[in-house]
Amino acid sequence: MCGIIGLFLKDQSLQPRLGKLLAEMLVTMTDRGPDSAGVAVYSSDEIDTIKVTLQSLNPEADFAELQQKLGAEMGCTVDVQIVDTHAIVRLPGSRAGDITDALAQVCPSLRVMSTGKSVEIFKEVGLPAEVIERFSIDKLSGSHGIGHTRMATESAVTTLGAHPFSTGYDQCLVHNGSLSNHNLKRRELIREGLTFETDNDTEVAAAYLTHKLNQGNSLGEALEASIDDLDGFYTFLVGTQNGFGVLRDPIACKPAVLAETDQYVAFGSEYRALVNLPDIQSAKVWEPEPATVYFWEH
C-alpha cells in the first residue's frame, strides 16, 4: 500500500521547521506501511560543496576514522557527520568524481544513498516514528523534502529496498504502487550502462528518469515519457535540487492529494497527512489528475 508525503516551501521562514513538518506528515501515514521508512531533505550548502549520504551495516567499524581515511586517500579536506547508521560526507565539488574510488579503497562496505549539492537521504527498516527518532529528522531544516513509509509487495524488506531511491545527482523518487514491466526496463537500462543494487521496481523508475535526464530531457519531459514506458499503477513523487514533481498513472487508482498556499505546496497519499500544516484551512486542495505532470521549483 505505502504512504508518501512531500513539502515544498515557498516561505523561507518555514525552512527551520521543514523536518518537524515532514516528520508529522510521515507518522500520520504509518498504517500505510509498517516495514521501512525514509526521508529526503534538500538544503543549501556552500556552492562549491558536494554532499554524499552513506549507510553502513556496521557503523562502529565503518565510520571509525572515516574522515581521516577519506581525506588521506583523496588528498583534500573532507568533513564527516555521523548520524546513527548514516554519514554525511562533505567535500569540494571539484573532487566529487573521486569519492567512489576513494570509498572502495578505505571502506568498500559503505553504501551510497545519495549524492548532490543539496540532498540528504535517511532511510532504514522500521516504523516512521522509529526512523525519525534515529536520525533526528524533526530537527532538520531545508527548502523541501519528500518521505515514504513502505509496505513491501515485490521485494525484500531491507534498508536498500526502502524509499527514497536516488539514482542521479540531487535526484530521488518515492513511489506508491507497482510496476508490471520493471524487469524488462531494468534489462534495457542495464544495456544502457546503468547499474542496480536491488530488485525493487521503484529503483527502476528512478533510474529510468535519470537516464532520460542524462539524454537531455527536462524532468517534465522525462515524466511525460514514463507514462508510455512504465506500465502499472503508481504515484510518483520526484525530488530535485530545486523542487519536486508529481505524476499519477493514467488509471490513477492510488490515492493522492495536493494542497497549495502562499507558503508551501504539500503532497500526501491521504488528506490526513496535511491537516497539521500551517494555515491548511486556507489552502487550495485538489486530487492530481491522471497522467498529468505537476512540478514546482524555486
Care to describe what's here?
With 298 residues, this protein is of the alpha+beta class. It folds into two domains: 3-44 and 120-297, Aminohydrolase, N-terminal nucleophile (Ntn) domain (Glutamine Phosphoribosylpyrophosphate, subunit 1, domain 1), CATH 3.60.20; 46-117, YebC, transcriptional regulation domain (Alpha-Beta Plaits). It has helices at 18-28, 59-62, 66-74, 99-106, 128-135, 182-191, 201-214, 219-229; strands spanning 3-9, 36-42, 49-55, 79-83, 86-92, 111-116, 119-125, 144-150, 165-168, 171-179, 232-239, 243-248, 257-260, 264-268, 284-286, 294-297. The protein has a seven-stranded antiparallel β-sheet, covered by helices on one side. The chain has a five-stranded antiparallel β-sheet with strand order 9-10-11-12-16. Strands 4-5-3-6 form a four-stranded antiparallel β-sheet, with no helix packed on it. It starts with a strand and ends with a strand. The mean pLDDT is 94.
Task: Outline the secondary-structure elements.
Elements: E1 3-9, H1 18-28, E2 36-42, E3 49-55, H2 59-62, H3 66-74, E4 79-83, E5 86-92, H4 99-106, E6 111-116, E7 119-125, H5 128-135, E8 144-150, E9 165-168, E10 171-179, H6 182-191, H7 201-214, H8 219-229, E11 232-239, E12 243-248, E13 257-260, E14 264-268, E15 284-286, E16 294-297
Antiparallel strand pairs: 1-8, 1-14, 2-7, 2-8, 3-5, 3-6, 4-5, 9-10, 10-11, 11-12, 12-16, 13-14, 13-15
